[in-house]
Amino acid sequence: MKTDCHNCPLRKLDLFDPMSKDEVHFMSKFKTGEFVAQPGTEILAEGASSSQLYTALDGMGLRFKTLENGSRQVVGFILPGDFIGLQSGVMGEMQHSVEATTRMTMCVFNRSELWDLFKYQPRRAFDLTHVAATEEYLLGEALAAVGQMDGYAKISWVLNRFFRRLTALGLNENDQVPLPYRQQDIADAMGLSLVHTNKTLAKLREDGVATWANDTLTVHRPKMLAENAFERGTRLRTRPLI
Amino acid sequence: MKTDCHNCPLRKLDLFDPMSKDEVHFMSKFKTGEFVAQPGTEILAEGASSSQLYTALDGMGLRFKTLENGSRQVVGFILPGDFIGLQSGVMGEMQHSVEATTRMTMCVFNRSELWDLFKYQPRRAFDLTHVAATEEYLLGEALAAVGQMDGYAKISWVLNRFFRRLTALGLNENDQVPLPYRQQDIADAMGLSLVHTNKTLAKLREDGVATWANDTLTVHRPKMLAENAFERGTRLRTRPLI
DNA sequence: TTCCTGCTATGTCACAGTTAAATGCGGACC
DNA sequence: GGTCCGCATTTAACTGTGACATAGCAGGAA
């Protein structure tokens, strides 16, 4: 049951830049298939080279690095529309692992055809560079949060980030968004211990700012959450969809 | 005193991927000038759009973000060969500020000609995406260090990272490399306080692993420093020069 | 129905790291 | 030569966070 690029549900969202007919046509040829990954599936492995690149169509996942001391740093959360495997595509080797958290459906592209994209579709190549720069920006934001905030601000920051991203994906119903991750995932993203993350989430709940339970994040006070996280403005920037 | 691309001193280094005659020729046309920045100069500002992009030819600088609470997160250290302003070039707006730490000489490119590079030089466009992916990788590494290491490992990690990068740039003389940054810069990169950074540097000196004084980093025990930082392998990957 | 596993929740204590303040030193400027 | 500034260093007091232990709950498997 392949999702036709011409009928891609993500393209309808304001979050993603519009695509020309020519670009859509090229992408429908560039796309070689769909891949459905079950929860826990390792989609890409750190240090490995992959012949496939992906766009997440549905479902959620994680990007993480494993340190030599065994600890895990989550370097990103994959949501619909995210591109997966760029590092393998241009550097030849993934610098982080990717794992499905829920059942995920992904559009599949062959790495061997990436060069054709650069040769024949400079606008798409430019968009790919834009996606890479966006990833860099998101990592910079995360580094700033992890490096300069205390636990309460960190948890506020990550929940606020999820809330905004999931809202922009049209997944917000009455200030509730799906959040199927574990507390350990958030802890490993923010550089906190599991216990401290749990206690901080309890504090946010007790303060009436946000509640995370049963794979659902409910934000009672969006402005307060954003302020706790030292977030300027509310607007997420649009970005290209690959 | 313009540096001719055909005689670029950086191109001689093994750290950078070779360039074809056609690529060098294109770059010498793409380059519009040289810019010399004095220490303290703000080269690019967070939130601003710039009409220029740069490659650092000589000298060192910083990339940083400022949080609403006034704290500063250093998100990168600029060394010769680093590309500056990619986010402005593809996203339209810088997500971090760039400041010169020493006197810096930079090759200047016009952002308006970036599109030509994508249209007429797909190999260079591919290299630019590679550079973006490399920045993403470096930020992921930094996030892992800041998020998962204690103070001693963090300082070891950043000094080891400098030692390797500066050695690859041919700046290592008897296990000594120039390091003209302040302790506050390192503290803001690793998410530590200035006092704790100072104490940790003292501990490394006392352990006979590394000494940083008079803008010079001396690594007495490179393997020990790398082990403290949980760094696998010794080899830095080559990358394209823009 | 029972047992096991994974995840969430809570309490207590120790300490790595922060904050505030003071001192020393070297270089630039008058 | 004296003064001022920026940076490095040190000390003391404090606290946010980690480590450890324990308990509860829900869902899946036997």
Write a structural description.
Two copies of one chain form a homodimer. By secondary structure, the first copy, chain A, is an alpha+beta fold. Chain A has two domains: about 5-140, Jelly Rolls; about 145-230, Winged helix-like DNA-binding domain superfamily/Winged helix DNA-binding domain (Arc Repressor Mutant, subunit A, Orthogonal Bundle). The first copy, chain A, is built from eight helices and eleven strands. Chain A has helices at about 20-30, 85-90, 115-120, 120-150, 150-170, 185-190, 195-205, 220-230, and strands at about 30-35, 40-45, 50-60, 60-65, 70-80, 85, 95-100, 105-110, 175-180, 210-215, 215-220. In chain A, strands 1-8-3-6 form a four-stranded antiparallel β-sheet. The first copy, chain A, has a four-stranded antiparallel β-sheet with strand order 2-7-4-5. Chain A is globular and about 55 Å long. Chain A starts with 20 loop residues before the first helix and ends in a 14-residue tail after the last helix. The model of chain A has no long low-confidence stretch (mean pLDDT about 95). Chains A and B meet through strand 5, helix 2, helix 3, helix 4 and helix 6 of A and strand 5, helix 2, helix 3, helix 4 and helix 6 of B. The structure holds a DNA duplex (30 and 30 nucleotides).
